[in-house]
Amino acid sequence: xxxxxxxxxxxxxxxxxxxxxxxxxxAAFASDPLPGDLVAPPAxxxxxxxxxxxxxxxxxxxxxxxxxxxxTHLSTDVTVGRYIxxxxxxxxxxxxxxxxxxxxxxxxxEVGVSNIAGxxxxxxxxxxxxxxxxxxxLSKTSGFAQPNFSFFxxxxxxxxxxxxxxxxxxxxPPISSFNKNTNLSPSQNTWVYEIELGYRRILLxxxxxxxxxxxxxxxxxxxxDNSNSAYVTPTVTANHIPPIYGVYNALSGGLIPxxxxxxxxxxxxxxxxxxxxxxxxxxxxxxVVPSIDAFIVPGFYQSLGGKQTxxxxxxxxxxxGNRTEESQLRxxxxxxxxxxxxxxxxxxxxxxxxxxxxxxxxxxxxxxFF
Length: 370
Description:
- The protein is an all-beta fold.
- The protein has one helix at residues 244-252; strands at residues 7-12, 15-16, 21-22, 25-30, 46-61, 68-69, 74-89, 92-105, 109-116, 120-121, 126-127, 132-138, 143-144, 148-158, 163-172, 192-204, 211-223, 226-233, 235-238, 266-274, 277-283, 286-289, 294-305, 308-312, 317-319, 325-338, 341-354, 357-369.
- Helices cover 2% and strands 61% of the residues.
- β10 (120-121) and β11 form a beta hairpin.
- The protein is elongated.
């Protein structure tokens, strides 16, 4: 069966304002098929699923290179409800499904700024000393993310040999608890279109004995624009302000910040645009107890693209620096605890994320067949 849980992806903006380098953020959801979702369920059944995922990030990645900003805290709890109904369509096992996530931001949310440049004041000799490292405090709105709807069909369904292939188009309408005036929101409030392809086969062993399998997923996204968005900048604070700024402040009549915050939060009406995104997942399910479908699954996730920009009302375009260039290791355990109930535990660890936070995720999924 196809799974769409969701991993919260906090999109972080890197831009230079007159006083400080700051970051702005919204949250988005990505498709996230898990191992085993390529095994076709019987036709004419219902599946109810409940997910809970805890995500925490303590560092934010630069758009290019291996530098990560500390002084970061992004933490969420995401609960997802999902329903699937299967049927036979022209001899192919097919179905429809819907899932709805609810996002809770836990505690204060902030992103580290590696170096806050000093202001350029020609009358005082030009570029003043840097404020140094700091942090951007992010405003947040918890609530429902966009619902997601899908039709799927198994083009290959060969349980005797353990081979499956599935295709699934998805659509997500802009219905959510989106708040354009906060840095973090449960969605981008845009139409999202996706095509998902998956293939699974046995490499070693048989379906009735311990075996090693391979499972490959491709997810391609297109995004409509959100013309009722806003370019939101957070409150920026320096960790340590050089004492010399007290002197500069006296000379400039109070124009140069010598106390925090260096930059107040602001919100400017704008149109949000996200370029197409591509995701790949590679799993190697090891079935250790075939009688209860017990698996241990190492995996790898990679995303590409997703450049995000804002166009202000005056026509100015701002490249946020946000991308979806994430590389992640995964380890998953799953089993049936009864003939009609499956339990899955998922651990995810980012090894690289260019233009986004390094996430550490833990998720539990419970599925009930009826």
